[in-house]
Amino acid sequence: MGDSPDFPHLPVMTIGELRCETAARLRAVAGDLAAFEADRLLGHLMKCGPTELTLRAALSVTVSEEDQLARLIANRLTGRPLAYVLGHVEFYGLDLLCDSRALIPRPETEELVAVSLDRLPDPASVIRPLIVDVGTGSGNIALAIAQQRPDVRVIATDIDHGALSLAGENRRRLGFSGRVTLLAGRSLAMFRPAPFADLIVSNPPYVVPGDPNIDRSVIDFEPHVAVFAGPSGLEILFELLAEAQTLLKPGGWFVSEMGYDQGNNIRDFLLTRPAWAEPVIYRDLACIERILTVQRVC
Ligand SMILES: C[S@@+](CC[C@H](N)C(=O)[O-])C[C@H]1O[C@@H](n2cnc3c(N)ncnc32)[C@H](O)[C@@H]1O
Hints:
Elements: H1 15-30, H2 34-46, H3 50-55, H4 63-77, H5 82-86, E1 88-91, E2 94-97, H6 107-119, E3 130-134, H7 140-148, E4 153-158, H8 161-174, E5 180-184, E6 197-202, H9 216-221, H10 224-227, H11 235-247, E7 248-257, H12 263-271, E8 276-283, E9 289-296
Helix pairs in contact: 1-2, 1-4, 2-4, 6-7
The protein binds S-adenosylmethionine.
């Protein structure tokens, strides 16, 4: 910020004015969230939160800051999701790099992390438990678990090399290169069929292609390999369950995110699979069935 000495005749705006103008411009894409998004863009630029924006409302911005903001707004007005425009997202208290190489981590997936942490063996009962995160995307689940449980090792896999490169950047930035291993490949096919994992977690693609409930911005901007499964939506989840039953140690847990209408099909599938017991499906904060946990018994 400053008085723009290079452009003394240009009218400069205050932070407060720019905040209002940005919110008005974003209304077309952000609707009721326009003011919130305006604060996120301005805060990103000024490196501060909304309270400080209020406290600094009467200060002028520089022409260069105005230009940078105009570019961010123009990018957002294409419909690109805010997290991709900002290049960062917060997940389970971690600041993650976020771009179109991987799905934007969702708040409901934080619940998947919380449930997984709850199912992990106690540090006193298992030394250095091994977790597998299938379809790691940005690395959000793997890194959040590693952050919360310093005793665990995590193998994070993805079929998509772009996603793995982003996960690698996040892993390096957050200092988890020693405890989080990244592997390329489909589902769990890269592992020898022998029990080694204490917990397998996944947020697999589970949307049926053509589902009319999917936001336009997801279709236009997020990787389709991260979103869409096959015609039932359950192909990848069932493939993972079939493979996980030989890779989990007896007593180990499989934890997965799932689609809002898939609960009955999943319960029916598990009823005919004696390797699995105690299936529980948790609802998310919107009261939608969202997280499956099931235990390998034999
Ligand atoms: C819904 S995204 C989840 C990304 C991240 N874990 C999250 O929670 O935000 C699914 C991820 O699985 C990957 N994927 C899709 N099919 C896969 C498969 N058969 N095996 C492994 N990964 C797969 C995609 O590339 C994508 O990164």
